[in-house]
Amino acid sequence: xxxxxxxxxxxxxxxxxxxxxxxxxxxxxxxxxxxxxxxxxxxxxxxxxxxxxxxxxxxxxxxxxxxxxxxxxxxxxxxxxxxxxxxxxxxxxxxxxxxxxxxxxxxxxxxxxxxxxxxxxxxxxxxxxxxxxxxxxxxxxxxxxxxxxxxxxxxxxxxxxxxxxxxxxxxxxxxxxxxxxxxxxxxxxxxxxxxxxxxxxxxxxxxxxxxxxxxxxxxxxxxxxxxxxxxxxxxxxxxxxxxxxxxxxxxxxxxxxxxxxxxxxxxxxxxxxxxxxxxxxxxxxxxxxxxxxxxxxxxxxxxxxxxxxxxxxxxxxxxxxxxxxxxxxxxxxxxxxxxxxxxxxxxxxxxxxxxxxxxxxxxxxxxxxxxxxxxxxxxxxxxxxxxxxxxxxxxxxxxxxxxxxxxxxx
Length: 410
Description:
- The structure is a single chain.
- By secondary structure, this protein is an alpha/beta fold.
- It is 37% helix and 18% strand.
- The strands form three sheets. Strands 7-6-8-9-10-13-14 form a seven-stranded mixed β-sheet, with helices on both faces. A five-stranded parallel β-sheet has the order 2-1-3-4-5, with helices on both faces. A two-stranded antiparallel sheet has the order 11-12.
- Helix 8 (171-186) links the parallel strand 6 and strand 7 (190-197).
- The longest helix is centred in the last third of the chain and has 18 residues, at 311-328.
- It starts with 12 loop residues before the first helix and ends with a helix.
């Protein structure tokens, strides 16, 4: 479907203040389709826009958002970003959500030499090495491998020697699995099972039995929300061997309120990646203010009322772009990129500095363990002690419960 036919109404915040030439920020959002659980990122964009405009805008101009629905389909991405650049005349681009949707836009921005803030793709720029691409998420340097390192550091700390790897055959999960395998090998862990599965897989019983037969000490999983749910349900029915010390890693879904609520105690013991958890080690006035504003909007719109994973980093994307524009003193794409490469930006999630391919120079991917969940009340996940941070060490908020079957019963 052509991008112009799936355009959302532009948010004309700039013109509302009488500016004739607002600075236009363009992005696609998965308002519909399999990735629509991430559409609450729009609230992050809009809170940032409102804050910038309330403070006088950028370069003396107001800010306007142009957001298009990509329908969670990679095939829509090239047309959408061509429309944002050439029809909508956007001055700055934010990427689509995740690795699968970002991959089709990388050749476009490199060929056109465009500045872009990427939204949650893993290892998106390791091949293209485009000097004007930057991550909003704190994956850290060498994100293809170091992104998963926290999981394997924990595994190593409890004597893991044998690892099983299971991954969805989509870009993010494949990248996570490849990176996980490299770290496991670096740590002299034997990979006793390594399998991908089609994205539409819903029955994991035979796969889980094969994993159990391999008798691993750790199970590293790269999955998306639907298959994350199916895998957890499969474990409830089939179980995993007592040898498994740690399970999880790169499962997308347990970060979202909908899955936390629907799966509830079934998630106990899972050690998984995240970017924010409501633990004392992460609470700051800035992030508290963000969520105080986010929650009532999310509840009114019927989207994830927790919003821990996606929305703060959509706000951060705006902060990074604003800092680059202000620092460069213009909308010159090369000058913006040069400034961002050379300076640290204070954001609502902490300081961000970048290497030559736009990765954060400091890894801040969390490994959290879900613990002590009782029932399916979502409110418990607003409290500390249920998404306990185990890694990185400077943010640790509790102790690692293992083996996995013991943690499941916690």
